[in-house]
Amino acid sequence: MSLSTAMFRTRLAHTARRQLPARRWYAAGVSGDVGKDAKAGQPLLPGIDALQLQVNKTASPKQLPAPGAPLLFGRTFTDHMLKIRWTEQAGWEAPQIEPYGTINLVPSAVVIHYAQSAFEGMKAYKRADGNVTMFRPDMNMKRLNNSAARLALPTFDGEQVIELLKQLIRLDKEWVPEAPGHSLYIRPTLIGTNGTLGVQPPTEALLFVICSPVGPYYPTGFKPVPLYGTTEYIRAAPGGTGAYKLAVNYAPGVVAQKAAASAGYQQNLWLHGPEHYITEVGTMNAFIVFHDADGGLELVTPPLDGMILPGVTRDSVLALARGHAAGARIEGMPVGKKVRVSERPVTMEEVSEASTSGRLVELFGTGTAAVITPVEKIGYQGSDVLIPTGPGGMGPISGPIWKHLTGIQNGLIEHEWNVVV
């Protein structure tokens, strides 16, 4: 072990003892929240322990992207990655940070054959004072645990993984872009790795994290996108997996995306049932703004009914909008108009009628990558439903909320959602 590695582990242990709860254990074969009482007669297995982190720094650091060079989403990756293995017999092993590289899997690995894979998308930002912060990582850990449980993958202590994410980001801190609108995209992934064919709970798994510096989603300014109202395919159904961030949810959407592109639209709008309920915008949550009968505005998003992914950006937009409605005003939001926030079903018929009558104010999608994406029109049943867009591409609700939310993420606005690395 090198002197630098030994010093790194010493600092890690000293920091973690101050910040982390005692190591948690869980019963073999028990899914759900880590740390609950074991079932009678089942052995206790170790959970993830950040104090056991082992670091193997790369001997060949990559060249950092040149200042001002475009950073395309998901094309460039940092020097290191985090890996934590799990087995049914031994529980979670010691976490490892090692050089970014390939993952060896046997050809019969269950992730390949049965799509036993869950993942997250989150970001870290470099502030003007030099500090790096993650945005609401607790939400991502909660959702990844929920996704893992849905696939019978092992669950874990999210606080421990957040501490490990901090260590990974600190090690690759130079990769966090400083330019406005830039960030470090973080991709935690959990897969089943045992090589035994047969549809059953995995007996071996791997949790790994890779990081990628990314630039603004819209480098030349906001461009409202045209959507294609997809009725030929569905993204999710009641009782299915739509509410979880699983790899299996994304591959079937590629053919629908290709169909939308061939028809001249940028993304598809997922519609469900004979009523054509709006569910999601491509891989984003959907928001619609209507004029209210009393002169106010209604911000609407479909409810979390088991088909909708509980997006972190979705939750953030709702919280900010409700805060504004309760008196915590957001700069730029309409003055003198009451903003009502609703989580309710919305059909394409309602949106189409509102567009025709002038009651429709705007429609946009929310997600980690783009934060907010405005929509200009929806191709639906042979014609286009036109969506109003404001100056700069955004509307009266999406624009101010985007500015406020990104201000929080970039550290211009102090907020409890930011976690210092």
From TrEMBL:
EC number(s) reported in the record: 2.6.1.42
PROSITE patterns, A to Z: AA_TRANSFER_CLASS_4 (PS00770)
Keywords: Amino-acid biosynthesis, Aminotransferase, Branched-chain amino acid biosynthesis, Pyridoxal phosphate, Transferase
GO CC terms: mitochondrion
Any single GO BP term: L-leucine biosynthetic process
Transmembrane spans: none
InterPro entries (alphabetical): Aminotrans_IV, Aminotrans_IV_CS, Aminotransferase-like, B_amino_transII, BCAT-like_C, BCAT-like_N, BCAT_family
In-chain residues carrying the UniProt-annotated modification N6-(pyridoxal phosphate)lysine: K245
The keyword Cell membrane is annotated on this UniProt entry: no
Cofactor list: pyridoxal 5'-phosphate
Annotated CDD domains: BCAT_beta_family
Catalysed transformations (reactions): L-leucine + 2-oxoglutarate = 4-methyl-2-oxopentanoate + L-glutamate; L-valine + 2-oxoglutarate = 3-methyl-2-oxobutanoate + L-glutamate; L-isoleucine + 2-oxoglutarate = (S)-3-methyl-2-oxopentanoate + L-glutamate
Presence of keyword Transferase: yes
Record GO terms (molecular function): L-isoleucine-2-oxoglutarate transaminase activity; L-leucine-2-oxoglutarate transaminase activity; L-valine-2-oxoglutarate transaminase activity
UniProt enzyme class: transferase
Family: Belongs to the class-IV pyridoxal-phosphate-dependent aminotransferase family.
Protein name: Branched-chain-amino-acid aminotransferase
Originating organism: Coniophora puteana (strain RWD-64-598) (Brown rot fungus)
